[in-house]
Amino acid sequence: MKKISMLLIALFLLNACVKQTKPESLYDQLGGAPTIDLITKNLLDRILNNEKIAFLFKETVREDLHEKIVSQLCQETGGPCVYEGLDMVEAHSGQEIKYSEFDVFVEDLILAMEDANVPFTLQNKFLAIFAPMREDVTYQ
Ligand code: HEM
């Protein structure tokens, strides 16, 4: 009887532990900092050389933008970072970015994730976070 009680208590505690385990963040599912850094590098390689949108970045210092994008992607995917750059409206105001240019950027983002071997399901989770920013980034 005592053994059964102990077993029940152990099962109860195990169950409580399992329930309290937080779901893994997208940041962790992606592989954390090295993957975020690689996606950002791949993205910048593409957008800074994509003739459809590169002209928008002619004043850009690559290292600065890299750092800011890493920090934002990290924060938004649930990683241990605090993005301290401009908000998306401020960062893109005055640039008159069109929907078609936003779409080119997203295509490059998808390719950047492909190049980093991010699985399709995680790519979709990633896009679901950033696609709603379209109205803040594009010209209004
Ligand atoms: C969801 C999509 C996007 C995200 C998450 C994003 C993120 C960022 C971030 C974090 C910054 C830096 C802000 C700061 O200076 O504090 C930035 C700047 C900028 N973004 Fe975006 N962006 C997005 C879409 C786009 C698109 C579609 C374009 C153009 C096609 C674009 C062009 C630029 C440019 C030109 C800058 C200024 C870079 C500089 O400081 O020289 N962004 N963006």
Task: Outline the low-pLDDT stretches.
Answer: none
Q: What profile does the largest beta sheet have?
A: none
CATH superfamily: Globins
Whole-number tally of structural domains:
1
CATH topology: Globin-like
Strand content: under 5%
Supply the helix-strand structural class: mainly alpha
Strands, count? 0
What value does the average pLDDT take?
93
The number of helical runs is 8
Helix content range: 55-70%
Give me the CATH architecture, please.
Answer: Orthogonal Bundle
Bound compounds: protoporphyrin IX containing FE
Separation of termini?
72 Å
| Rg estimate, integer Å | 21 Å
* The top level CATH class name: Mainly Alpha
The ordered string of helix (H) and strand (E) elements is HHHHHHHH
Spatial shape: elongated
